[in-house]
Amino acid sequence: MTKQGHIPPAPAPGDVAPGHALQWLADGWRLFMKSPVVWAIQAFIVFVILAALGMLPILGWAAAPIALPVLLAGMLSGAQALDRGEALRIDHLFDGIRQHAGNLLLVGTFHLLGALLAALVAMAISGSAMLTGMIVGSVPGAGMAAGGVMVGALVFTALWVLLLMALWFAPALVMLHGVAPLEAMMLSARACFHNLLAFIVLAALLYVLAWVALIPAGLGMLALLPVTAGALYAAWRETFAPQLPALPAPAQRSAGEDTTRGGAPAPGPDSD
Known about the structure:
This protein has about 270 residues and is mainly α. It has helices spanning about 20-35, 35-55, 60-85, 95-135, 140-170, 170-175, 180-195, 195-215, 220-240, 250-255. It is globular. Mean pLDDT is about 80; it is low at about 1-10 and about 245-270.
């Protein structure tokens, strides 16, 4: 068994105050300003890759969502490097491909399958209501059909939000701690539920910032994407890192050493 396999199960996420969402964005901005040119180049590469994947014949609609966690994990690796005082490199973007490609692709696949399932459930609800409305006919039937479409839309929205919660921390948990894909997604959803107000505040702030970033011909997205990655790293660090034994750095892993951030031996599977 590899040393990564000896990592104990991740504990429940810690408590986070709602106001910390502002601090996460501030941390994301701080990390961005440490190397803005490299970050902007990384963001541009991400958009180009996703656009190219989206134009693939037949499976283009699926390729981009599946690849997104891999690219996001690379940006998180870069954020961690900056946080450790190291230099940010453009090729940090591809760390997810080099280190955890299979698990990160599974995260993207599970998220895509979940979105398709949510769409099917919503379509089934809306379609059955519309069919019943057609059978009933007249005004009551029209009202029933309209109500069914609204219920279907609400169900899809609720399921989509749950999927976003499951995706939010999953790339960080897979990339920065080596958690298995399904466990990472379940932990991510638990963390978002556990600190719901904080992540509602963060989502609202990011929504506003996204509109602002689109104003200068969309060029602001070259800054917002890295800032979001930095905020996600800061949120992961505060929510999970105090409870999780860190993986050793790549050089240490290759030398067969197990260390935590402070250099102490990493706990074994039976550790409390």
